[in-house]
Amino acid sequence: MTMAVRETFVRRRGARFAAGAGVLAVALLLTACAGAAPSAGPAAGEQTAPGDAAASDAPQAAGSGRDLSEGGSCVGGEDIVIAADGSSAVVDGPCGTVTITGADFGGNIESAESVEVSGANASVLGTEWGEARVLADGVTLNVDSLQRLVTEAAGTHLTTQRAGELVIDGDGATVNGGEAERVALNASDATVVLTAITGALEVHGDRNIVNWATGVEAPTADTGAENVYTH
User: Fold this and answer.
1) Amino acid 46: pLDDT
2) Can you point out the beta strands (E) in the chain?
3) Which residue of 18, 81, 82, 191 is most buried, as measured by CB atoms within 10 A?
4) Is the CB of residue 75 less than 8 Å from the CB of residue 96?
5) Taking the chain, what is the end-to-end CA distance rounded to the nearest angstrom?
């Protein structure tokens, strides 16, 4: 009888302990839920990947800009690109750097700090440019005022009223226009017809033809062969 009473006491005590433990667990769970704040971002001390927060504000890559292959206006001297092959565009306003990569482009870039043409057979009109650089064959430029031209490609054609410096590094170039301050022919088979060459004429290629009315009396340097000068 005593043993049965003890067994009953032990069982009741175990049941009370289990019930108490269950109540304690529920209380702890409710406390944890009440104290947890909704997460609005990474926890304190947790670092965020640099690209996560600023992905939408990332700047454009260097040398890029809006694609105005269909024309438009530059704003505040911005850089633009002409990327579509065979496109025709009129771009007005003050541009910064204009990069023409599309082949067979035909259009008008009114004003630019610099124009780089790497699309073959482009034909570009302009009013006032800083520097023009030609990297593709068969490019034609007609620019009223140009501070500097550097062409590294064959068959460049330039028509201009006023130019600062013309550096011809590609064979078969043609230059026709008004006044240029300096002309440097570092290639062969070019034809240059200008009203005036006021500063210097340097020829370092062969079979070039240079015709000018006023300015320098003769080439300041001629290291080539079979060059023809008319002054």
Assistant:
1) 45
2) 66-67, 72-73, 80-82, 88-100, 106-117, 123-134, 140-151, 157-168, 174-185, 191-203, 209-215, 221-222, 228-230
3) 82
4) no
5) 140
